[in-house]
Amino acid sequence: YIKHKTHLQETGKRVNTAAKLKERPTADLLCIDIIGGTGKYQGQIGSLVLQDSKGRTVAVGSGLSDFDRAKNYNFFIGKVIEVEYEQLIDTYIQPTYLCIREDKSSNDIN
User: Fold this and answer.
1) pLDDT greater than 80 at residue 7
2) Quick check: 105 pLDDT over 70?
3) 2, 22, 44, 53 — which has fewest CB within 10 A?
4) Hey, is 75 helix, strand or coil?
């Protein structure tokens, strides 16, 4: 919890003088498929289907830029993708795309 020195608690109100700071863990996952976009992203990449070393899969669209979504469907397949997430239960909860890990191979996934 980060707060400005002049911050006063106001029950039930959002304020600009305080914020929660949550650290989110990251994972390196292998891109195994693509899901096509709909609506604004029709004909583009909607989300990446990622898999970890235990076989868990998750679709990640959050964090992809319009530039990323316009790339060829095969661009991401087979690449290691770094994501951040809220928590790991049976799958990754609230995953967000961060980047492609060019320095890692499929042997290095979490």
Assistant:
1) no
2) yes
3) 22
4) helix
